[in-house]
Amino acid sequence: MPVITFDYHDLEELGIEISKEKLIDILPMMGSDIEDFDESSIKVEFFPNRPDQLSVEGVARNLKGFLGIEKGMPIYPVKESGIEVFVDEKVSKIRPYISFALIKNVKMGEKKLKQVMEFQEDLHWVIGRDRKKVAIGIHNLDVIEGPFYYNAMSGTDISFKPLESDTNMNLKEILQEHPKGTKYAHLLEKFDAYPVIMDKNDNVLSMPPIINGELTKLTESTQNILVDVTGTDEKAVNYALNIICSSFGEVDGEIESLEIVYPEKTVVTPNFTPKKKKLNVAKTCQLTGLDLDAGEIKELINRARMDAEIISEEELIVTIPAYRVDILHETDLIENVAVEYCFNNIEPYLPDIATIAHENKWYTSDNLLREVMVGLGFQEIMSLMLTNEEKHYNHLRLEEDERVEVSQPISQDRTMIRKSLLNGLMEFLEDNKHEELPQRIFEVGDVLYIDESTETSTRTVKKIAAAVIHSHANFTEIKSTVASFLENIGYEMNLKPFDHPSFIAGRCAQVNGGLNNDKNQIKGFFGEIHPEVITNFNMEYPIVAFEIEFIEK
User: Fold this and answer.
1) How far is CA 278 from CA 49, 288, 327, in A?
2) Beta-carbon count within 10 A of 86 CB
3) Would you tell me how many other CB atoms lie within 10 Å of the CB of residue 307?
4) How far apart are the first and last CA of the chain?
5) pTM metric for this prediction
6) Residues 432, 357: contact at Cβ < 8 Å?
7) Burial class of residue 142 in the structure, from the number of CB atoms within 10 Å of its CB (0-12 exposed, 13-18 middle, 19+ buried)
8) CA distances from 26 to 60, 350, 413, 459 (A)
9) Are strands 307-312 and 275-280 parallel, antiparallel or unpaired?
10) Rounded to the nearest 5°, which phi and psi values hold at 88?
11) On the chain, which terminus has fewer CB atoms closer than 10 Å, C or N?
């Protein structure tokens, strides 16, 4: 998770007088972990659902509310700049969305410059999915002139001097030779043209999402900046811009808007229009365990730096700032009420009921599966349900499809919820390739599918998967393992040929079956893992594997 470092003196400059000891006590109550501290500074790790707190200004804004120094939703005036940004339709299939803002009279300095760069990179991780979803550029406004143009160009159409480079490079050369270009080239590898932002004099500001130009590089003396945010998700693009602008607004940066002219519409950014949600008093009391009335809830909402209007004794309307990306449901508002009340002030109590517990039958069956696999000589592993698209799809030679994605991932290794157990087994074998062979591992666990017919639009499915690696692993071995496993749990087995991209063609089979000749209680596949998959996971020996899904009726 992102870690930010700031000095205690930074908070004093932002209007907060607080002792180091009290600050260390309070910050964990606001949804953070303290990594380290000394006499002059502190390192704080904030949860990824609060990207607005990834700058010292964001931390100070919320501290002021928690301490009662300032209450209610902060207002950041936005002046019209009169400058336009013209978006070429050719970028619509590459990175279709863009937002801009000007921020003037910025007090930069050496320390502030470093904080801005770290803030930008943290947002790239938390909101941008390492620039895939959102990429941010912050430029020296005084060396460029609007209007600005967001175009797509071929690799040799234009050259400019990228950051940390002494010579001009064309777009293709940047992707092939520049360190940032080679790192992020995969984001543009499917396209023949690449996004470029230019000013009225054809100066190149940036090549999003790869790198900015050396011309607009920030310095300690920079006073006026231009912020551009490009991406594939319009909401995420606008949220990122709002978070950056509100952070500068906390230190009296003068924010100016621009008109973004698309082929089919014109929008103005930044857009600080707040959203509104209803908050039920009874539900707030039920979920927090607190006895609060509407007035007390309003006070706590104000401390959370939001506005609230009491419309009855049972309901409030809450006005939510445009930079609060974490407020999605009423329960998120209730969480803010609990945070501002302070979790340490909530007294725990035992419920006035007595129950007799018994093991859930769903998990009783898990234990049976484990016993059988251990009896067959396999060792159990337990991997995380969170994974990433690269290993879940690309490494296994699978086409990407619908999946449940993590909106604010802690890291780029954990961006989606798994739909298969296979990549977890392969990652384990990769991490333990230095150990002796053979290795026989299995996992019993849940996966998640998108299912619009359910209340949550998702469906949880139990699976079991196993893998074997050694120099002579083959189809016959994994077939015998599957047959023994199903026989031991009392299931009939039915097989037919099957093609699966992760397995060698002709050495893979589909299996289904169940109890009492019911063929629809399980379904799955087994076979010899494809050599390309083995190489993708940096291994050298043959691997055989199976995966079986249990169908709930």
Assistant:
1) 21, 17, 12
2) 15
3) 18
4) 40
5) 0.73
6) no
7) middle
8) 12, 27, 30, 39
9) unpaired
10) -75, 140
11) C
pLDDT digits (tens, 9 = 90+) for 84-114: 999 999 999 999 999 999 999 998 888 899 9
State the CB neighbour count (10 A cutoff) for residue 18.
16
- Neighbouring CB atoms inside 10 A of 325's CB total 22
Secondary structure E strands in 105-192: 134-140, 148-154, 159-160, 169-170
| Tally of CA atoms within 13 A in the half-sphere of 147 that contains its CB | 12
Q: List, in order, residues 6 or more apart from 383 with CB less than 8 Å away.
A: 421, 424, 425, 427, 428, 443, 445
Q: Which residue bears the tokens 């706590």?
A: 300
Percent of the chain with pLDDT over 90: 67
Name the band, by pLDDT with cuts 50, 70 and 90, for residue 30: confident
Residue 133 in tokens: 């979803």
- The DSSP element (H or E) to which 493 belongs, if any, is strand 492-497
**Segment 404-409 long-range contacts (CB within 8 Å, at least 24 positions apart):** 404/448, 404/450, 404/458, 408/48, 408/49, 408/51, 408/126, 408/127, 408/325, 408/326, 409/48, 409/125, 409/126, 409/129
SS3 500: coil
The sign one gets for the Cα dihedral 133, 139, 143, 147 is positive
Structure tokens at 300: 């706590």
